Amino acid sequence: MLIDTHCHLDAPEFDRDREQVMARARAAGVQSIVVPSVAVFDFQTARETALAAAGGVYALGIHPLFTPGAGVTDLQALEREIQLRLPDPRLVALGEIGLDYFVPELKTDEASRHQECLFDAQLGLAQRYGLPVLLHVRRSQDRVLKYLRQYPAVGGIAHAFNGSEQQAQMFVRQGYALGFGGAMTFGRAKQIRRLAQALSLADMVLETDAPDLAPSWLVEPGTALASVRNEPAQVYGVADSLAQLRGLNVADVIAQTGATARRVLPRLDAFLSSQGQ
């Protein structure tokens, strides 16, 4: 089963042609798309977008990039929304949450403490309500792991993973699969490509992070990556790139990564099973 485990399909970049984007994804064989929210303002939008997509599911959470404007009231709103939506089979995770130490504004002492406080609180909610998490781990692998060890019952996916093999194995031991997407398709991304070859395929899932992180074949020479819109149909190309890197059949890569996604997101598995998939 071809699953895009991380796609911001509710983003404004898709407002003009979202239905066509979803149709192209279906035509490419994408059977499920996980739509994570990023803040209180898009809880409803993420859910409604997922409901409109074939096999669409969603996650609720506060992204680290949105932590500067978030506080206790946002955490309270998140918990209320989780309580409200927990009976909804399409709610499969808490996310996108995590830590970001790439953006300068988030690296100050105050911003760092604040985003870590919100991350810790959201891990607590995930544990309380039995939800896995979709993790944002940018320049923060060791710091994220420190918090994950305090919540051993919480698993999920470390999205767009770009750490070392040793760090990757630590995430796996904590019960997380690692997400690979467009970054892996660039020849210059040597660390990610080495990791994609070294890890057990059973610990990997596919993603696009659309509209961001476009794969190499969408990016013309001299074009800024940030200016190129990615979309969920491209997850098939990601699967094919991973298959080529590992010397495998693309169908086998799709089958194993799909099975892994269903394993680490049990509510996704339950939802897809209820749909006869």
Please explain how this structure is put together:
The chain is α/β, with parallel strands linked by helices. An eight-stranded parallel β-sheet has the order 1-2-3-4-5-6-7-8. The mean pLDDT is 97.
Can you give me a brief rundown of this structure?
The protein is 42% helix and 16% strand. With 277 residues, it is of the alpha/beta class.
Secondary structure class reads alpha/beta
Quaternary state of the chains: single chain
Shape: globular
**Can you give the helix content as a percent range?**
40-55%
Q: Write down the overall mean pLDDT.
A: 97
Major sheet characteristics: 8 strands, parallel
Distance between termini?
Answer: 8 Å
Helices and strands, with pairings:
Layout: E1 2-4, H1 18-27, E2 30-36, H2 43-52, E3 56-60, H3 72-85, E4 91-100, H4 109-129, E5 133-138, H5 141-148, E6 156-159, H6 165-173, E7 176-180, H7 190-198, E8 204-206, H8 235-246, H9 250-264, H10 266-274
Parallel strand pairs: 1-2, 2-3, 3-4, 4-5, 5-6, 6-7, 7-8
Helix pairs in contact: 3-4, 8-9, 9-10
Features:
eight-stranded parallel sheet, alpha/beta, 10 helices, globular, single chain, 42% helix, 277 residues
